[in-house]
Amino acid sequence: MLRLPRVVRSLCAFASASTSSCMGARLSRPRRTLSNSATGTATAASVASATHAASNTASSSSASSRSLSTSSTAANNANTTNDAMAEELRTKVCIIGSGPAGHTAAIYAARAELKPIMFEGFLANDVAAGGQLTTTTDVENFPGFPEGVLGAEICERFRKQSERFGTQIFTETVTKVDTTARPFKVQSKDRTVVADTIIIATGAVAKRLHFPGSGEGEGGFWQRGISACAVCDGAAPIFRNKPLVVIGGGDSAMEEATFLTKYASKVYIVHRRDELRASKIMQHRAMSNPKIEFLYSSEVVEAKGDDLLRSVMVKDKKTGETREVEANGLFFAIGHKPASDFLEGQLETDTDGYIVTKPGTTQTSVEGVFAAGDVQDKKWRQAVTAAGTGCMAALEAEHYLAAMNDQ
Amino acid sequence: MPAYLKTLDDFKKAIAEDSVVIIDFTASWCGPCRMIGPVFEKLAGQYGTIKCFKVDVDENSDAAGEAQIRAMPTFKVYKAGKQIDELMGASAEKLEAMFKKYA
């Protein structure tokens, strides 16, 4: 068990479209936690095995006595060739995505002996396989871990559990899905999977703004004061009793700003318009908080500092004037973008791109295609709620397949 | 398999070579680092003329500091003790292009 040094590092960054990287900060490391704890110890993330090559392991079957796998078994080749020619595989369940939703779906589907195939993604949307949890350090609110667990480690555990029951995992990013004909087709650069059902669990990515100082690398303060998750990072020591800025005008922005006042000396809410989008109750809550100051019709145009963020330049859109505001933290609360673009409109999505599911289910507008986790959840967006919907999706896929069999 | 350089001395010795050396500055908790690791290893195996090493920025923070690493992963190219190129971020295409360039 490795103790990470006290002179700590910051989190992995959500990258811009062209790079995936993690910032290294000299000072305190933001912690994804809702509590005030500052234990300073951490288990080292177990380094993933060198090859993520799909293992065609026979499912170490549980005592399940179901016999759902009938005639068309997955044509999994024991010798997967590395030809660029698209290799075609057949399965009852294809899972796209590798966060808590994807892996919970995989575990349930594998234990139902459906021999699921998962595409875990290779830096899909510039995020490592495992999803948003890989970009955080301590996870303290996922049940089952009284000491907390490193994000990368819990993802590794999800993966091991999926593999244990026979999930075949490809470290590839899905490039194309075809749900216009049955069975469905899911393609990556290296192979095509023909599937009776698909579970979409591709997650969502926090939106960011881009201006000088907002990026990673030299001169950028991403993860050195700039973050997209106040709930995750707000309790970090670097933000205690310091002035902070939240950009946004919706409920999230109000909630996060209010949350941050627990730690900050002052919180500015910077919004590009005069009117907030947030619900009245959230607006009132924020407005009646003595630590919150609203900067309307304003936008942050630059982030400045040295080792860490020290100030931001805020421009008044009406007067054109720019002034420097001392800030040691800047949080984007401008929404999430679900990773549904790759579906090219084949499933019904709402105006924000979230896959629409029938209430109380993971069923999408296409029969046999299910959606779980943040890609369909605008409201809760937690690892444990994603796991819950992943389970639902697998069970619904199983029921659907059984019904198909009965015909 | 690229070996880890554990100390500042190891690092200085490794980059002093006349031949091209590429170092992967990586961190165990960094998702993109873990994804690009196998790619780096594969390229290291393919391009025999380039000597490859890894530095874990937490375990060998002296070397990471000497190399002024601020983001992980960072790939740095050295020749005769001098840095001649670098790549920040986990891009398989750009990494392969860099190997091709210095092969």
Automatic annotation (TrEMBL), chain A:
Similarity comment: family membership: Belongs to the class-II pyridine nucleotide-disulfide oxidoreductase family.
Keyword Membrane on entry: no
Keywords in alphabetical order: Disulfide bond, FAD, Flavoprotein, NADP, Oxidoreductase, Redox-active center
Domain of life of the organism encoding this protein: Eukaryota
Name of this chain's protein: Thioredoxin reductase
Disordered as annotated region, ranges: 55-79
Biological-process GO terms, alphabetical: removal of superoxide radicals
Entry EC number(s): 1.8.1.9
Catalytic activity: [thioredoxin]-dithiol + NADP(+) = [thioredoxin]-disulfide + NADPH + H(+)
The keyword Repeat is assigned to this record: no
Lineage: Eukaryota, Choanoflagellata, Craspedida, Salpingoecidae, Salpingoeca
Top EC class, one word: oxidoreductase
Assembly and oligomerization: Homodimer.
UniProt-listed PANTHER family: THIOREDOXIN REDUCTASE 1-RELATED-RELATED
Gene Ontology MF terms: thioredoxin-disulfide reductase (NADPH) activity
Protein source organism: Salpingoeca rosetta (strain ATCC 50818 / BSB-021)
Automatic annotation (TrEMBL), chain B:
Site (Deprotonates C-terminal active site Cys): 24
InterPro entries recorded: Thioredoxin, Thioredoxin-like_sf, Thioredoxin_CS, Thioredoxin_domain
Tagged with keyword Disulfide bond: yes
Site positions per UniProt: Contributes to redox potential value: 31-32
Keywords: Disulfide bond, Redox-active center
Disulfide linkage: 30-33
Matching Pfam families: Thioredoxin
TM stretches of this protein: none
Similarity annotation: Belongs to the thioredoxin family.
Entry protein name: Thioredoxin
Record organism: Salpingoeca rosetta (strain ATCC 50818 / BSB-021)
Source organism phylogeny: Eukaryota, Choanoflagellata, Craspedida, Salpingoecidae, Salpingoeca
